[in-house]
Amino acid sequence: MILLALLACSGPDGDDTAAPVVGDPDYVRDPALDVDLTSASGGAESHNAGQACMHCHQAHGPGPGRFTLAGSAYRADGTPAAEGSIQAWTPMMDGGTLVAEVPIDALGNYYTTEALGLPDAVIQPVVLDATGAVVGQMPWPTESGSCNQCHTPVKRVLVP
Ligand code: HEC
Ligand code: HEC
Fold first, then answer.
1. How far is the centre of ligand 1, averaged over its atoms, from the C-alpha of 47 (Å)?
2. Using CA atoms, how far apart are residues 9 and 22, in angstroms rounded to an integer?
3. For residues 127 and 83, is the Cβ–Cβ distance under 8 A?
4. Ligand 2 geometric centre to CA of 151 (Å)
5. 18 alpha-carbon distance from chain centroid
6. Ligand 2 centroid – CA 142 distance (Å)
7. Between residues 155 and 17, the one the model is more confident about
């Protein structure tokens, strides 16, 4: 128990002089990075498939655009889904209204900076294939559009 207490006290939080890292409230972000960005069908400007995009594309990070919804979609065999789209709906249990539709790009990634009202409002994600058919729906709404934060390799967002 004593050893654990010592370890807890020696963490990075105790160091006031360290430069702010990504995510710190005092991380200095270049205002020129605050551009509007939304993925396009067939586009290939994105990168880092599978990673939590909003770790960097956020108010205290280095990525262009403050993403409101972003992530990656996969085929059942684990390769990137290069087509289809992600929709954000108001909760289905309240009737469900379409809020936004974000295309999956050629690398399997989707992203937007469009205001979705998160986290005060919640959204319910729906997945469409290239023909526009619904192939997936999150069973409940989420306050976070940072899909890959939860959809890790254990449970990816799939476009069969
Ligand atoms: C580790 C930080 C980091 C992560 C994680 C990250 N990005 Fe980025 N992203 C950046 C930076 C920095 C740039 C600008 C420099 C560059 O292109 O590498 C960038 C550039 C981009 C661009 C090009 C923007 C433009 O101006 O055209 C897109 C699109 C993009 N990222 C999407 C994503 C998506 C989608 C994800 C998640 C699947 C993601 N990024 C994950 C840091 C990150
Ligand atoms: C806070 C965590 C979290 C976030 C953020 C999140 N999800 Fe989910 N999602 C879950 C969980 C948990 C499940 C249920 C997993 C299960 O059934 O095993 C789920 C289920 C789903 C399903 C149904 C999967 C299936 O096999 O039926 C889809 C589709 C989905 N999410 C899409 C998305 C998309 C797209 C986003 C981003 C807009 C997103 N989710 C954001 C946690 C999250």
1. 6
2. 22
3. no
4. 6
5. 28
6. 8
7. 155
1-30 pLDDT per residue, tens = 444 444 444 445 555 567 788 889 899 999
125 lines ligand 2 (CB under 6 A): yes
The terminus-to-terminus CA distance of the chain in angstroms comes to: 49
Q: Residue of the nearest CA to atom 32 in ligand 1?
A: 46
Per-residue b/e over 64-80, b at no fewer than 16 CB within 10 Å? bbbbbbbbbbbeeeeeb
**Residue 8: per-residue pLDDT:** 43
Residues counted in the chain? 160
Q: Give me the sign of the Cα torsion angle 149, 151, 152, 158.
A: negative
| Token pair 């009737």 in the structure block, residue | 95
**Which tokens go with 38?**
């939304």
Nearest CA to ligand 1 atom 39: 53
Residue whose token pair is 């290239």: 130
37 and 15 Cβ atoms separated by less than 8 Å: no
Alpha-carbon gap, residue 98 to 94, rounded angstroms: 12
Phi-psi region of 39 (alpha: psi -120 to 50; beta: other; left: phi over 0): beta
